[in-house]
Write a structure and sequence with these properties.
This protein is of the alpha+beta class. The protein folds into two domains: 52 residues, no CATH class; 158 residues, Methylamine Dehydrogenase, Chain H. It has three helices and 14 strands. The strands form four sheets. It has a four-stranded antiparallel beta sheet, with no helix packed on it. The longest helix has 48 residues. It is elongated and about 105 Å long. Pfam families: WD40. Keywords: WD repeat.
Length: 294
């Protein structure tokens, strides 16, 4: 188990759970697949049958031990490699699909806006596959996200610049031509973060890759602007903005309290009106009795 707070959690297609903690430890956990659970269920039912047979045979004073059960144990090893880089890396991401010939690994630099692309199976740090230097980033790139369905890579830097590109050499590491429905980046809303003086610090694609969501923070300003943006990937247009600042929740809470006070006041007024109506009815009844007595 981890000894510090778990900061990262990732589930792979090979049934591995990878967790990382604040003290720098990374752990690999093998998850139980459905097939493994079925095997275990079969074994447990078989053992129950053997126990029933054993108890039944014991009554007849004929004890028969169960026969041996064949179990196949498969061990999966995670290949690892260590490479010494000439720069200090900031973030990395795999930017290839399952059918791609190369397992492309993108690594950003902490002190520059460059992104180095390597072959992950044969990591040769001296000769990278490509160096992304003309994307337009002005600061270090801290986010690199890849989507298999659209074969698109989205990178974000600390200055709020967001860029589309491809990890394939066949596309010359540029935007896939069949994906985007805009001719120029000026036709999109990808400059919205620069206008708002914010930058995305978290970005995730939808399963089909047609929508991506990102959370933003302010750039070196004391005012906090936390917003959740939903983007149309193909058009680069904003679909929805959710304001996650504390002021919004305070305003909502104030409105809720005001509404509750108004409901309480209206309820008290209605109650007072009902009491007045009851008193008027009693007075009318008493006056009618007096008139009849006369």
């Amino acid at each position: 188990m981890h000894r510090d707070v778990v900061t990262h959690c990732l589930v792979t297609k090979t049934d591995f759970l990878i967790t990382g903690s604040a003290d720098g430890h990374i752990k690999f956990w093998k998850m139980l697949t459905l097939e493994y659970v079925k095997i275990q269920a079969t074994l447990s039912s078989y053992q129950q049958q053997q126990q029933q047979q054993l108890s039944a045979s014991s009554k007849e004073q004929q004890i028969n031990g169960p026969k041996g059960i064949s179990r196949n144990v498969q061990t999966t090893f995670v290949k690892h490699f260590r490479a010494h880089l000439d720069y200090q890396p900031l973030t990395c991401s795999w930017i290839h699909g399952p059918q791609d010939p190369l397992s492309t690994l993108a690594i950003s630099v902490m002190t520059s806006p460059l992104i180095y692309l390597y072959d992950g199976k044969n990591l040769n740090v001296k000769e990278p596959l490509h160096v992304q230097s003309k994307l337009g980033h002005t600061r270090c790139v801290h986010l690199i996200e890849y989507n298999e369905q659209t074969e698109l890579v989205v990178s974000c830097d600390m200055g709020g610049i967001v860029n589309y590109w491809s990890g394939k050499e066949s596309c010359q590491y540029d935007i896939p031509p069949k994906l985007c429905q805009f001719e120029s980046k000026l036709d999109t809303d990808l400059f919205e973060f620069i206008k708002q003086q914010t930058y995305p610090y978290c970005l995730k694609f939808s399963p089909n890759g047609l929508i991506f969501a990102c959370l933003t923070r302010t750039i070196e300003t004391p005012i906090t602007k936390k917003k959740l943006y939903l983007f149309d990937t193909r058009r680069g247009k904003i679909m929805k903005i959710y304001n996650e600042t504390n002021d919004v929740y305070r305003q909502l809470q104030d409105k809720l309290q005001q509404k509750q006070q108004q409901l309480a006041q209206s309820a008290s007024i209605n109650k007072q009106d009902d009491e007045d109506d009851v008193e008027n009815e009693q007075i009318d009844e008493e006056s009618n009795k007096i008139i009849k007595g006369k």
